[in-house]
């Protein structure tokens, strides 16, 4: 029996179940320490495998279409943070201060990789450009996200950590394993590429472990006593507003700059996403010293993740159903594939 379209995917249901388990049975004491170490190992393994899988050519090729990539990076790391800061007087009353810190953090994250590429493919956009843009965003985010967090969130619950300290933590847990994977790609790259199921398992497991650890710490600190039900509804509205503005701005600006239809689709999908896979490990490092840990911070990201998939999947299907006449050398996508969970 086919799954009804209105139901979330298995990974999203797993995240919801993890939050419930962490709320009822939070890890504490030695258990919390063990889960913390397991999470760190899983995250490092994840980025090692991603480094081994990602072709260097995909990163180098980003330079050849610099206008498109510059616009996507500008949307990801400039427009989103400015939106969250500029709309703060209007949007922050809808949620708690701690949740809005999570909104700000979400707006500093890199774009997704898998879902951006898959949705661009479904919408018949420029898939090679999406691969390059999403990859470049993911790598640059290792440096730019902690830098932005250090500047913007230095007095908003980030534990007082300096930008350099944040970057150092991210480099050791994410970038070093990624570079090690790139070096090892010569020997294990083909094997990792064939083992997609294994990479997905490590990917999902690392996120679930991190969510459980983060929410356990937050629950012990009184997370659900501090967040009224109305704030959850307000958070959904905040995320919808930010996503709608991002989709509208990227579409309008790319059209005004004369990009082809295929490139405009790529810019819209890659420039409006925020990565759950990168964001949760980063939150674990950046907010380790904050009151309540990363639990409250990742809640806005988890909601934004699901909202962006639902909204953009509908848009991608509508674009893909059209008979798009590509101009200016826009590249047609290969056979569409369904978007993954991240």
TrEMBL record:
Specify whether Coiled coil is a keyword of the entry: no
Where are the membrane-spanning stretches? 31-49, 70-91, 97-119, 131-152, 164-184, 205-224, 230-254, 275-303
Q: Know the name of this protein?
A: Bile acid:sodium symporter
PANTHER family (UniProt xref): SODIUM_BILE ACID COTRANSPORTER 7 (PTHR18640:SF5), SOLUTE CARRIER FAMILY 10 MEMBER 7 (PTHR18640)
Gene3D superfamilies associated with the record: 1.20.1530.20
Q: Which Pfam families match?
A: SBF_like
Which InterPro entries does this UniProt record tie to the protein? Na+/solute_symporter_sf, Put_Na-Bile_cotransptr
Q: Which UniProt keywords apply?
A: Membrane, Transmembrane, Transmembrane helix
Keyword DNA-binding belongs to the record: no
């Amino acid at each position: 029996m086919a799954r009804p379209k209105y139901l979330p995917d298995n990974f999203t249901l797993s995240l919801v179940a993890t939050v419930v388990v962490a709320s009822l049975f939070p890890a504490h004491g030695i258990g919390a320490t063990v889960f913390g170490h397991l999470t760190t190992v899983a995250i490092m393994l994840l980025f090692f495998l991603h480094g081994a899988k990602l072709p260097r050519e995909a990163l180098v090729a980003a330079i050849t279409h610099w206008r498109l990539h510059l616009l996507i990076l500008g949307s990801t790391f400039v427009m989103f943070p400015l939106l969250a800061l500029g709309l703060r007087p209007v949007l922050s009353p809808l949620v708690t201060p701690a949740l809005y810190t999570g909104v700000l953090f979400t707006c500093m994250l890199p774009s997704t990789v898998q879902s951006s590429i898959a949705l661009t493919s479904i919408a018949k956009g420029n898939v090679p450009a999406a691969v390059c843009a999403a990859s470049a965003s993911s790598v640059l985010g290792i440096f730019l996200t902690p830098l932005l967090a250090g500047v913007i969130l230095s007095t908003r619950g980030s534990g007082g950590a300096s930008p350099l300290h944040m970057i150092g933590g991210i480099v050791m847990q994410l970038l070093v394993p990624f570079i090690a994977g790139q070096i090892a790609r010569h020997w294990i790259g083909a094997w990792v590429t064939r083992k997609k199921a294994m990479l997905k398992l490590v990917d999902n497991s690392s996120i679930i472990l991190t969510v459980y650890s983060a929410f356990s710490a937050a629950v012990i600190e009184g997370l659900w006593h501090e967040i009224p039900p109305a704030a959850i509804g307000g958070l959904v509205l905040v995320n919808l507003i930010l996503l709608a503005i991002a989709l509208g701005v990227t579409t309008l600006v790319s059209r005004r700059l004369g990009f082809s239809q295929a490139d405009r689709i790529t810019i819209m999908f890659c420039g409006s996403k925020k990565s759950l896979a990168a964001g949760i490990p980063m939150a674990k490092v950046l907010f380790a010293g904050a009151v309540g840990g990363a639990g409250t911070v990742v809640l806005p990201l988890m909601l934004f993740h699901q909202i962006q998939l639902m909204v953009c999947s509908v848009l991608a299907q509508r674009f893909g159903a059209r008979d798009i006449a590509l101009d200016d050398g826009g590249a047609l996508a290969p056979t569409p594939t369904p978007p993954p969970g991240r």
